[in-house]
Write a structure and sequence with these properties.
Layout (H helix, E strand, L loop, with lengths): L1 H22 L4 E4 L6 E6 L11 H12 L4 E2 L8 E5 L4 H18 L2
Helix pairs in contact: 1-3
Length: 109
């Protein structure tokens, strides 16, 4: 029972951390996880330059430019969203979220 409580506590902390950090990124709207080990993040395409046309181009450029992998929401029938899994150690998540923020700042209109 202690393992389960500890694991759930860590995941809740990571979920809150993810929501807090990504909510500060230009052009993104984060949907709280609600018990999952990931969040869905809406890409507000109109707030980005012409290179970002949808979730697929956003995630492709994110990988190419700042080496962060996120799944396009189109894989799940959620166009203009992407999925971030937050099971990694918090230090790695923090670094990834800083890279995403820099990417969003670079591509904002």
């Amino acid at each position: 029972m202690q393992f389960r409580a500890k694991t759930c506590g860590i995941l809740e902390d990571h979920s809150n951390f993810t929501y807090e950090k990504l909510s500060k990124c230009h052009g993104l709207n984060v949907v709280p996880s609600n018990g999952a080990m990931y969040v869905m993040v809406e890409v507000l395409v109109d707030e980005f330059d012409s290179e970002v046309t949808d979730d697929v181009t956003f995630t492709g450029l994110l990988l190419d430019e700042v080496n962060v992998f996120a799944l396009p929401g189109s894989c799940f029938g959620a166009k203009n969203f992407f999925r971030v899994v937050f099971c990694a150690p918090k230090e790695i998540l923090g670094d990834s979220f800083e890279r995403i923020k820099g990417f969003c700042d670079k591509h904002k209109k």
